[in-house]
Design brief:
The complex is a heterotrimer of chains A (614), B (278) and C (458). Chain B is of the alpha/beta class and 278 residues long. Helices cover 36% and strands 24% of the residues of chain B. Chain B is built from 11 helices and 10 strands. Chain C has 15 helices and no strands. The chains are: A alpha+beta (614), B alpha/beta (278), C mainly alpha (458).
Chain lengths: 614, 278, 458
């Protein structure tokens, strides 16, 4: 068997053509592996980029906030006067009436009861308090007319940033003639029909979109019908069968309904814009506004070349308007799906034309504490809470960590106990953070009930719930392993010659450790501690469990008062349904990341500055 | 400059003679190096070395440490390519073809010019997998049976077969130092190279293992051109037919081993072999 | 009051340092060498004991006395309102404490006011007792140390012994933490199993998780504490996360260790580390705001219905979070494979790819396995991403496009939910205990493997 193989023949294979081909494949495999590596790093980089860009773009949405310039005569009711005269600065008066008057004055035309609600919801609740504060600071303004900037409501903030779609100018051809219509308050409009091909396209598009959704609904119901039919066949008892039969009927009815709706919508979609068909624009359609001079019409029915409209903003002009002095505006999301009504959109256009909308740096975001109103909420309370929590964490974890590392490196005998502590520390570093939260909840906050010798005791439970003290204590336990591991590594890096030198001069081991080893190891320990603190600053889950997710409108004055921290605030804001909170959450994240970047940069700097090779 | 007759003869070499009794040193040239310079960044490690290495003979590189002998050895199968800052100029021809030519694939070259290292470095795999590694990646065996027989023959050549034949599936790292080095030689042999480079193959071994490996090297001479870097002049004298003396990046002398150790022509060589420096 | 007492004890400690140091100096009578220890050590010894005795006595008294005060006030409540349910009595108690300390109570009535007054009077006694204990402790310690000072007194040895004990205690905190975790979890876990009548198999294998429905008189419905949906959800998200993290992390590590130039390494490694530094709540936001909607829209465009809170979205983002764990640990172990092995392979004419696949990776395998285990343990214990992006309903499904729930999500929901703490704690802590055990096993195995591996190549 051994003789079968001739090595010289094998050697010859190295230069054969077959080997050349094989080589190509082998090199190709290498290129592939390399490409996978690049792809992997690329994917990780892309994920990071996407994450950062999401946060940055959302943050830029709230860098500025919008205000509305208003002017009003200050009148104060008796009840408000009482609050204004109260010397306690925390008692604030909300002057809603002057705000309402100012808004009514600011928009053209009469404002009915329904419109009045839409009007007052333009500005934040804060506007009344803001005015109240002005009066409280200087009661002499009562009775005078003053100008002020009112903060706009959160929906309008989003609207002005364009994230809900703004009216799109689609122009207008020929002359626009307006005549009072048959019904009270309506107007018949005439114009060149080819102006609004785009409008008809948009209406058709919306109808088709709705039809598609109706079809999907129909399919779902059909599916339910099929399943139920099968289950009826399998049903064991008559009772069950009857119940299923009833269900089946309702599914069928809903399916037919959806089908009819879909058919109707599709029919409409095909005929809209045809000669002679007058189409009624409902809330489920795109909205169509016409601005002629200073007058704003809202179109309610439309056909080729003519329309019926109501006036949203009147003016003295009655038309006709020449080409160029009037334009159509399309809002391509149906009013029923928007948080800003057509009327509010018109008012915003008017305010913008007038230059009454102001854009100011959103300092509120940094200076305010949490609030139920999205436009008022800020992070200051959470920043203070995070500060106290970090102070507690550092004061507990750093000394303990340094002491433990000195003991383990300099004094601990190499025995099983030390080994156990070492294994223990490494394990603790990998225990899920939420388990630490449970530990903190049980030991620090609630206390563990123990029944012993016929008596009930509670072990622990000495820290107040929701307090930075409790949160900081939990985080200290979590950070301790990190600091100990870093501390031991840097103590170990101090060469034994230094210890020998100190011991040789008659210093005790403790003196050697504290006077010589520790100062040399300190930069390393600090670097590790900062990294540990940075982790703690971003930690959320354990703090949720000790109650630091409470709704806190005042920054905690000391570590014993209830507070929350930036990460828990981010969690709370994220679970809020108001959409402005999405952007504010991103802003809070940005602030958190800035802190983390600073801390990590500090750690890197420290490492670079004091890095020493022995 | 390419000697075509040589190339054809080595591409299809004649069957090995049953035994090579006389220590002749007038074989064909296997590797021809001319004016080789090696730079590590800006420092020059090898200066203008020209040497013809013969087939079916053992060539020893001796010299004090840091003289560049290992560096030069690593040029012969382009192992220096893996070091980014290393730069080689001059020509090194294997059977008349320049190995630093753009068309030459270092991977293919290393299959033809095998290498054994200073410290035994068996892969953390079974003995069988260690030896079959080369044949597998180069596709030398057509079948499992063929592979088995390559492994067996390589281990036999490395004089290791009898010791390990019953535990081929055990890890190669479990062998003794000398066995590990012989395993590494078997591994190199199994790839069926034409030239075998050995970088101080015995420096990590005890005297008994060293003797075994030296015996093995003498054996291998019959089929390969063997180049060995060694620290020990006795070893060079024992196993090699030709010896080159390196000093400070220069090759000062290259001649038949007998001549180098009895009548060196260079003063430095004389001083080195008589132990005046080293 | 108490803060001042704390300050006073601290001042006493520093003062005794100065006094004892001075006494040592005067005892030496100008010949400092006649002292066994330098005067500062006498001072230090005094400082340490005064602080320990003062603060120790204060804290001890505080714990004992406040326990007594609480039970006295509770019994007063029981006397005043014997018909009340225990839980309401406890509420009265906490309200009364709030009223007495100027906090905001949930309700104020006569009963609460009376109890608050009782509490207030007891509390004054408590503060006085505690303060006295602290001050007396500190004073006594000072007297003892002061009278011990003599020329031959080994203050340095003794002070160092005290300090070493302090160092030892600090190191012991690590053990205490573990003991604390186990104790605090195990207590509630036992209560939980007791409440379901020791039907442990119902918890382990039951498929309906709704522990708070059907709670009555201290028992839970064993039919509704089946944690399998949570285990399945956790496993599914973990598997998805590892499917993302392992290939990306491993290939990135291979590339960085064996292919990348120094310059590429210089920016690519920090890039991966940045991913590790981002807080999980930020990943949660990313998953909820960007990834989940993107997946849903993508699904809709190819006719797949993906829930807006899906296991897939949470898993993918968790995978991104775990990439750096896998890559940096793998990078370490791949770099630890000796160059000699690589050279051996190159010397046989292997390409880089073959060397990596057939030599480096098998050699580094134990390390890579432990990296994967640590990553898995991380994924199982991760909370915020799943809380924010995976859903809360415990529905049993194997479809990664649906919302699932995990062990960690349920812990958060139970503890932060509206149910009163006493009821919700038992199932939550039981889940926590399960989580702790599973991750502990993974961690111990992984750390063992890493340790072995280090020893192999060191």
């Amino acid at each position: 068997m051994t003789d079968v193989i001739d090595f010289t023949e094998l050697s010859a294979k190295h230069t054969s053509q077959a080997t050349k081909r094989r080589l190509r494949a082998r090199h190709w495999a290498e290129v592939r592996l390399k490409a996978y590596g690049i792809l992997a790093i690329g994917l990780a980089g892309a994920a990071l980029l996407l994450l950062v860009s999401t946060i940055v773009t959302k943050t830029t949405n709230v860098v500025y906030e919008y205000t509305l310039a208003l002017e009003t005569k200050i009148e104060v009711s008796d009840r408000d006067m009482e609050r204004i005269n109260d010397p306690n600065p925390n008692i604030r008066a909300s002057l809603r009436r002057p705000i309402q008057d100012a808004l009514t004055d600011a928009v053209p035309g009469e404002v009915g009861r329904r419109e009045s609600r839409q009007l007052t919801s333009l500005v934040s609740n804060d506007a009344g308090l803001f005015l109240g504060d002005i009066v409280k600071a200087d009661p002499s303004v009562i009775g005078q007319t003053i100008a002020f900037d009112a903060l706009l409501d959160d929906n309008l903030q989003l609207y002005l940033k364009g994230s809900m779609g703004r009216p799109d100018n689609i122009g207008g051809l020929g002359q626009l003639i307006s005549t009072p219509g048959d019904e009270e308050g309506t107007y018949d409009l005439e114009f060149e029909w080819s102006s609004f091909g785009e409008l008809f396209d948009a209406i058709r598009g919306q109808r088709r979109f709705d039809a598609g959704r109706a079809r999907a609904e129909q399919r779902r119901q059909q599916n339910a019908v099929d399943v139920t039919e099968e289950r009826i066949l399998d049903a064991a008892t008559d009772e069950e069968r009857a119940r299923l039969q009833a269900q089946l009927e309702s599914f069928r009815a809903r399916r037919d309904q959806a089908e009819q709706r879909a058919d109707a919508l599709m029919r409409l979609a095909t005929v809209i814009g045809e000669e002679g068909l007058r189409y009624q624009l409902t809330e489920a359609d795109v909205s169509f506004l016409i601005k002629a001079g200073e007058t704003w019409f809202k179109v309610t029915e439309i056909e080729r070349g003519s329309a019926t409209a109501v006036i949203y903003a009147p003016s003295d002009e009655t038309g006709p308007w020449a080409e160029g002095t009037w334009n159509g505006y399309l809002l391509d999301r149906p009013e029923s799906t928007r948080l800003v009504s057509d009327r509010q959109a018109v008012w915003m256009e008017i305010f913008e034309d007038r230059g009454a909308i102001g854009q100011v740096l959103n300092t509120r975001l940094l200076n305010n504490s949490d609030s139920a109103s999205a436009e008022l909420a800020g992070i200051w309370g959470a920043v203070v809470g995070s500060f106290w929590t970090m102070v507690v964490t550092f004061l507990l974890a750093f000394p303990l960590g340094v002491m433990a590392s000195i003991y383990l490196e300099e004094f601990a005998p190499k025995n099983r106990v030390t080994d156990l502590i070492e294994v223990n520390i490494n394990n603790l570093a990998a225990v899920p953070s939420i388990v630490f939260g449970l530990l903190g909840l049980a030991i620090f906050v609630s206390g563990v009930p123990v029944h012993l010798f016929g008596y009930d005791f509670t072990i622990g439970g000495f820290l107040p719930r929701s307090s930075p003290l409790a949160g900081g204590a939990v985080l200290a336990l979590m950070t301790l392993p990190t600091i100990i591991i870093a501390g031991r590594a840097s103590i170990r890096a101090v060469p034994p010659s230094i210890r020998d030198a100190a011991l040789g001069l008659g210093a005790s081991r403790l003196q050697t450790a504290t006077h010589h080893v520790l100062p040399l190891a300190m930069p390393g320990i600090l670097t590790g501690s900062i990294i540990g603190m940075a982790q703690a600053l971003g930690e959320t889950a354990p703090l949720l469990l000790v109650g630091m997710n409470s709704f806190i409108q005042e920054p905690p004055g000391d570590p014993l008062s209830p507070g929350n921290v930036l990460p828990t605030l981010i969690y709370q804001w994220n679970s809020n349904s108001e959409r402005l909170f999405d952007d504010k959450t991103a802003a809070a994240i940005s602030v958190l990341l800035v802190f983390l970047i600073i801390m990590n940069a500090l750690a890197v700097l420290l490492r670079k500055r004091f890095e020493r090779r022995w | 400059m390419t000697d075509t007759t040589h190339e054809t003869t080595t591409a299809k070499p004649a069957p090995m003679p049953p035994s090579v009794e006389s220590v002749t040193v007038n074989n064909e040239t296997k590797l021809r190096c001319k004016d080789v310079d090696v730079f590590y960044g800006s420092t020059q490690a090898i200066k203008q070395v020209s040497i013809d290495i013969q087939d079916k003979a053992v060539t020893a590189f001796i010299g004090p440490s840091g003289c560049g002998k290992s560096t030069f050895l690593r040029c012969l199968n382009r192992m220096n390519d893996t070091i980014e800052i290393c730069n080689v100029t001059g020509t090194i021809e294997l059977d008349g073809g320049d190995i630093y030519d753009e068309d030459v694939d270092p991977v293919q070259l290393r299959a033809r010019v095998g290498m054994v290292f200073q410290k035994p470095n068996p892969f953390p795999k079974s003995i069988y997998e260690n030896v079959s590694y080369g044949p597998k990646i180069h596709g030398l065996a057509g079948s499992k049976a063929e592979l088995d027989s390559i492994v067996e023959k390589s281990l036999r050549r490395a004089a290791l077969w009898d010791e390990v034949k019953d535990r081929l599936d055990q890890p190669g790292t479990g062998l003794s130092g000398g066995q590990q080095q012989r395993l590494c030689i078997a591994r190199a042999v199994a790839t069926a190279p034409e030239v075998l480079l050995m970088d101080e193959p015995c420096s990590a071994l005890d005297p008994i293992a060293t003797a075994q490996v030296e015996e093995l090297i003498d054996e291998l001479r019959q089929s390969y051109s063997v180049v060995i870097v060694t620290h020990s002049m006795q070893q060079a004298a024992r196993v090699s037919q030709k010896t080159a003396f390196f000093h400070l990046g220069l090759m000062l002398e290259y001649d038949d081993t007998g001549k180098i150790f009895t009548a060196p022509s260079h003063e430095k060589t004389q001083q080195y072999i008589t132990g005046r420096f080293g | 009051m108490l803060p001042y007492v704390l300050l006073a004890i601290a001042l006493m400690a520093f003062a005794s340092f100065a006094v004892c140091r001075q006494r040592a100096v005067s005892l030496a009578d100008g010949r400092l060498a006649s002292l066994h220890s330098r005067p500062s050590y006498h001072g230090l010894y005094a400082l340490l004991w005064v602080a320990i005795a003062g603060f120790g006595a204060l804290i001890l008294t505080q714990l004992v006395v406040s326990g007594i005060v609480n039970s006295l006030v509770m019994s007063a409540i029981v006397d005043l309102a014997p018909d009340m349910r225990r839980i309401e009595q406890e509420l009265v108690f906490s309200d009364a404490v709030k009223i007495a300390t100027g906090g905001l109570a949930s309700a104020v009535d006569d009963l609460r006011q009376t109890v608050a007054d009782t509490y207030g009077s007891y509390n004054t006694i408590r503060v006085i007792l505690v303060s006295l204990a602290g001050l007396i402790g500190a004073g006594a310690a000072f007297y003892v140390v002061w009278s011990q000072i003599a020329q031959g007194f080994r203050a340095r040895d003794r002070a160092e012994r005290v300090l070493r004990t302090a160092l030892w205690t600090a190191a012991g905190i690590a053990i205490l933490t573990t003991i604390g975790i186990v104790l605090s979890l195990i207590g509630e876990t036992l209560i939980f199993f007791q409440r379901i009548g020791w039907n442990v198999d119902d918890f382990m294998f039951g498929t309906t998780w709704s522990p708070l429905s059907g709670v009555s008189a201290g028992t839970l419905d064993p039919e509704k504490v089946g944690a399998v949906p949570l285990f399945v959800g956790t496993m599914m998200i973990t598997i998805i996360a590892m499917c993302v993290a392992v290939p990306i992390g491993l290939f990135a590590a291979i590339y960085l260790a064996d292919f990348a130039s120094k310059r590429t390494r210089a920016w690519a490694k920090p890039l991966l580390e940045v991913l590790a530094g981002i807080p999980t709540v930020v990943y949660g936001y990313f998953a909820a705001i960007t990834v989940a909607p993107a997946l849903r829209d993508f699904g809709a465009s190819i006719g797949l219905s993906i829930a807006s809170e899906s296991a897939l979205a949470a898993g993918v983002v968790m995978g991104i979070m775990i990439i750096p764990f896998i890559s940096s640990l793998s990078d370490d172990v791949i770099n630890a494979v000796p160059q000699a092995l690589r050279d051996g392979s190159y010397g046989l004419g292997a390409t880089k790819a073959e060397t990596i696949r057939r030599v480096v990776l098998p050699a580094a395998l134990p390390g890579i396995v432990s990296a994967v285990l640590l990553g898995t343990s991380r994924a199982i214990g991760e909370t915020m991403i799943v809380v924010m992006a995976a859903g809360q309903g415990a529905n049993m499904t194997l479809n990664p496009l649906d919302a699932v729930t995990t062990v960690t999500v349920q812990i958060v929901m139970l503890i932060t939910g509206d149910t009163d703490a006493a009821t919700a704690a038992a199932p939550a802590f039981t889940l926590g205990f399960t989580l702790f055990c599973v991750t502990l096993v993974l961690n111990v195995v992984a750390l063992r493997v890493v340790r072995r591996y280090r020893e192999m190549y060191d």
